[in-house]
Design goal:
The protein is mainly β. Helix content is about 0%, strand content about 50%. The strands form five sheets. Strands 2, 3, 4, 22, 23 and 24 form a six-stranded antiparallel sheet that branches. It has a five-stranded antiparallel sheet with strand order 1-8-7-6-5, with no helix packed on it. The longest helix is centred in the middle third of the chain and has 4 residues.
Length: about 325
């Protein structure tokens, strides 16, 4: 939730509990365009819009989506929420265009004792990265804020956990703020850093005000720094097929509303000790159809396109929305 926590503190209704078992959940969708005023417009920055959905559900557990992953076909979505739940759903398409969401199930993320995570400090899941299998069954890394940690989670169609291991964080991570700390975890998929875990704080800064992160494991572990541009904070990251990364970033000011940015980091830039600039692919204000964009995932479409899928965290507020949208990276 990070910097938007104070925006709707009186409006947040994060559920005090989680589902005690997987529950099929009805979700309604309304297709949306990225540009409300010019729906025919499809090119934004360096990306091509491939469709969006506004999601509605009566379940109090639906919302707070902060980390997502997709299978290779882009049809099975797995997500985690900052209230300690997971969601699995089927995405449907009309050709290349995102059309709908079906077969939605919500369930509890389990703790080491095999029971659902209960307290706010332990259940604030923020990042999700697949390490084995696919979104139906396999293993994933989940990063948690407040009680900062990255856990290895085995999962099936009916369960998520208990965790099977812990990724050891660098000592510097101890300096992270409780609600502006470990926000993103991603896995490098190719190149010399293949298998390396990349973790980013939301707002842990160095002496020059830039954002700190870490390469963990692999052949070249060590700290990295991302240049903080325009006061944006990191909300998620995902590995690209070529060994690079995409970063999802957010900025909020009462005077200007919410903004979103997507940056690409090349594989060549991912080196310990380096200050990373990356390439801005898209920057958007709330004049376009965005909300509190918290999650990003990458997959290759059948047509060979690299597709970026984004999802928003509605903070369980009636004044915010759960959105999912897709863009192609030419």
């Amino acid at each position: 939730m990070g910097s938007l926590c104070a925006v709707a503190s009186s409006l947040i209704a994060k559920p005090a509990d989680v589902p005690d078992r997987p529950i099929e959940t009805r979700v309604s969708v309304i297709p949306i365009n990225f540009d409300r005023d010019r729906p025919e417009r499809k090119e934004f920055g360096k990306l091509i819009f491939r469709g969006g959905l506004n999601l509605f559900s009566r379940s109090r557990h639906f919302g707070g989506f902060s980390g997502i992953a997709l299978d290779a076909s882009g049809t099975t979505l797995l997500a985690v929420t900052d209230a300690g739940a997971w969601m699995r759903a089927t995405l449907t398409y009309d050709g290349r265009w995102l059309k709908g969401m079906e077969n939605v199930t919500l369930g509890p993320i389990l703790g080491p004792d095999g029971k659902p995570l209960r307290t706010d400090a332990e259940r604030d899941a923020e990042g999700l990265a697949l390490t084995a299998g696919d979104t139906r069954a396999g293993q994933a890394l989940v990063s948690f804020e407040r009680e900062h940690r990255i856990l290895r989670y085995p999962f099936t169609m009916k369960s998520f956990g208990p965790p099977g291991g812990v990724i050891r964080l660098p000592k510097e991570a101890a300096g992270m703020d409780a609600n502006q700390g470990l926000e993103a975890a991603a896995l490098i998929h190719a190149g010399p850093l293949k298998g390396t875990v990349v973790a980013f704080s939301e707002r842990l800064k160095d002496a020059n005000g830039n954002l700190r992160g870490w390469l963990i494991g692999g052949h070249s572990p060590g700290p990295i720094t991302v240049r903080r541009l325009g006061g944006f904070d990191i909300t998620d990251a995902a590995g690209l097929p070529d060994g690079g990364l995409v970063l999802l970033e957010r900025r909020f000011r009462y005077s200007e509303g919410v903004k979103m940015r997507i940056r690409r980091i090349s594989a060549a830039e991912l080196k310990p000790g380096r200050l990373i600039d990356g390439e801005v692919l898209l920057e958007a204000t709330d004049r376009l159809n965005i909300d509190n964009m918290e999650a990003i995932a990458v997959h290759r479409s059948r047509a060979g396109e690299t597709i970026l899928t984004l999802m928003s965290d509605d903070n369980y507020s009636p004044f915010q929305r759960s959105l999912i949208m897709q863009f192609a990276l030419p």
